[in-house]
Design goal:
mainly alpha; 4 helices; about 65% helix
Length: about 90
C-alpha cells in the first residue's frame, strides 16, 4: 500500500514555525496553529506524492521563490485571521 502525502503540509508547517519564531500572535496554542494550517492549506494548491522520487521532485519544485513568498503570505494572512478571532475561549 502506498502512503499518499501532501508536501504542502510539510512546507506550511515549517513556514508557520518560522513565522511564530519571529512574530507574536494573540494565541499560538496547538488549536490555533491547526486552524492557521487549515486556513493556509485551503488557500494553496496541494502537492501530493507517493514515492521518494516524487517527494524529491516536489521539494525541488517548491523551492521556487514565488511559491515561498505566496506560502508565507498565506501563513501571515491566516495567522492574522485566527489571532483576531480564535475558535476557542480566551482561557485556553
Amino acid at each position: 500500500m502506498y502512503e499518499l502525502k501532501n508536501h504542502m503540509e510539510i512546507v506550511v508547517q515549517q513556514a508557520l514555525q518560522d513565522y511564530l519564531r519571529q512574530n507574536t500572535i494573540t494565541c499560538s496554542c496547538e488549536h490555533c496553529q491547526a486552524d492557521i494550517m487549515a486556513l493556509t492549506l485551503n488557500r494553496l494548491p496541494a502537492r501530493y506524492f507517493v514515492s521518494l522520487q516524487g517527494e524529491i521532485l516536489t521539494q525541488i519544485e517548491s523551492q521556487a521563490l514565488p511559491d515561498q513568498a505566496r506560502i508565507m503570505a498565506e501563513v501571515v494572512r491566516a495567522a492574522q485571521q485566527v489571532s483576531a478571532t480564535p475558535s476557542h475561549p480566551n482561557n485556553q
